[in-house]
Amino acid sequence: MKVSIIGAGNVGATTAQRLAELDIADVVMLDVVEGLPQGKALDIAQAAPVMGYDVDVTGTNDYRDIADSDIVIVTAGIARKPGMDRDDLLAINIKIIREVCANIREHAPGSIVMAVTNPLDVTTYAAVKYMQQERGRVFGMSGLLDSSRFATFIAKEIGCSVKDVDAMVLGGHGDSMVPLPEYTTISGIPLPQLLDRKTIDRLVQRTVNAGAEIVGHLKTGSAFYAPSAAVAMMTEAILKDTKRIVPASVYLDGEYGLRDVCLGVPVRIGKGGAEKVIELELTAEQEQALKRSADEVRQGISKI
Ligand SMILES: NC(=O)c1ccc[n+]([C@@H]2O[C@H](COP(=O)([O-])OP(=O)(O)OC[C@H]3O[C@@H](n4cnc5c(N)ncnc54)[C@H](O)[C@@H]3O)[C@@H](O)[C@H]2O)c1
Ligand SMILES: O=C(O)C[C@H](O)C(=O)O
């Protein structure tokens, strides 16, 4: 098995480290900066004897090295700084996505592509169009991260283990994301039975702002530990064909009444990528929120 990661920055390199520690595939990191992927890959490889993994981790600036990848993860692009929205990254990152996808098409044409670069739903849409692959083989990571954040805040509030919280966040990876308290459970108990509406609303708001909260602390970039954890889990689900069900950004073709847009919805992840969209029954209010989120993503799509 082989996974290539385009962009050897914070998310890319941390993902490489997590995948190496899972010991499931050789990892190639590619970046435009000379020496950066090579140096980070050597560093990760030299941890293998201590950590006990056998996979190869290499760095390169040459797309020929991604040939025969099972999965290509795209983290190349700029990250936001305080005061910026993810949409402010669009003009620069869309050019990068176009160039990266052209190279993936040339050098690793059959691979599954996972977009990570922001603004996520718009770059995923662009990747879907540029790659011209079977639906589900090109998708974006976002909802698993947002759900993980929601679950973290819920566990802290209730004072329970995060392992017992199963949270669900749909919609675009932006201010219009749609956390679903009604589809969030704690050991099978629906969240609204354990917390009052005002507390849930506060946690929802913190989840929506979670990326910006970290940007505000870091000042020079954005989150990468939790994002890389989500990317690694989804990569493992593909390589091991585990059929995990998580929210991810996929091209919608009528599901949830939405067409020709990428948006976070629950999907089954297996060897075919995002193999199946799972349609939840939504209230009128939740449906409206999802539609508003789709409209926001469409505004970004109209600029590419
Ligand atoms: N989907 C999500 O939930 C999520 C989470 C975290 C970060 N992100 C996004 O992921 C992207 C990367 O974040 P980061 O923190 O790793 O940023 P970073 O600045 O640490 O790393 C980005 C890397 O991309 C490289 N790069 C730039 N142009 C390239 C090109 N044309 N080809 C190959 N590599 C290129 C840079 O040299 C750099 O090493 C950002 O757009 C960020 O907003 C998304
Ligand atoms: O907030 C960002 O810009 C990065 C990422 O989308 C996140 O949610 O952490």
What does this 3D model show about the protein?
- NAD(+) binds at residues 7-12, 31, 93, 116-118.
- The chain is α/β, with parallel strands linked by helices.
- It folds into 2 domains: 2-140, 3-Layer(aba) Sandwich (Rossmann fold); 143-302, Lactate dehydrogenase/glycoside hydrolase, family 4, C-terminal (L-2-Hydroxyisocaproate Dehydrogenase, Chain A, domain 2), CATH 3.90.110.
- The chain is 42% helix and 20% strand.
- The chain is built from 10 helices and 14 strands.
- The chain has helices at 10-22, 36-45, 48-51, 90-107, 120-131, 143-158, 197-208, 210-218, 225-239, 284-301, and strands at 2-6, 26-30, 57-60, 71-74, 112-115, 138-140, 165-166, 169-170, 178-179, 185-186, 189-190, 244-253, 259-270, 273-277.
- It has a 6-stranded parallel beta sheet, with helices on both faces.
- α1 (10-22) packs parallel to α2, α1 crosses α9 and α5 packs across α10 (284-301).
- The model has no long low-confidence stretch (mean pLDDT 98).
- The chain binds nicotinamide-adenine-dinucleotide and (2S)-2-hydroxybutanedioic acid.
- Nicotinamide-adenine-dinucleotide binds next to α1 and α4.
- Residues 6-12, 31-33, 36, 75-80, 89, 93, 96, 99-100, 116-118, 120, 141-142, 145, 173, 221-224, 227 line the site of nicotinamide-adenine-dinucleotide.
